[in-house]
Amino acid sequence: MKNRFLLYGAGIIIGILLTCIGGFAFTEDNVKAVSGVLIGCGSGLFGLSIASIISTYITDKNPAYKKRMVINEQDERHITIRNRAKAKAYDVMLLVIGVLILIYALLNTKLLVILLLVAAYLSISAVHIYYLSKYAKEM
Amino acid sequence: MKNRLEELRKERGIKQDELAEALEVSRQTIGSLENGRYNPSIILAFKIAEFFNMSIEEIFIYRENVNHEK
Known about the structure:
heterodimer, B: 70 residues, 434 Repressor (Amino-terminal Domain), 2 strands
């Protein structure tokens, strides 16, 4: 438990540091994007660490609640629902990325942007095929 | 697939929460099983059968069997 709190504490400190560096060190116009990314990542890490500390504190103080959380997490119906939702989202994501590639191509967007999107689409499809083959061998 | 889960649970005077805790599943899962909206995995079916000290076939009724009996 102490180790987890140390980890979350480190997350809070790193989050604050990143936000401060993004807000005060990178102020020039040519590094505005870096500043935005640092502030975004820093505040995200800060919020996540605070939420994790609160959640860990509540669950550790209340064993019955912790047990219920574990059961809910491992509940087979919940897992099935999550997996079905993910599968639907995956189908929609491929469709959306495909349409985006077409729109960017029609808008004469920079070739690099289109190639990056195509690479993302192909990577996702490759992962899909890899797991299809892996699970087919396992089951 | 139909089942007699609700009937057996009520016969024994067990609450959904208690059954859920004994089977280590959520209360919603018990509700869905009783309503017939969700079919359990074979492992959960065995757990349920073990809990009620019955065979799986006595609790879960496969639709084709029902038609056959009719």
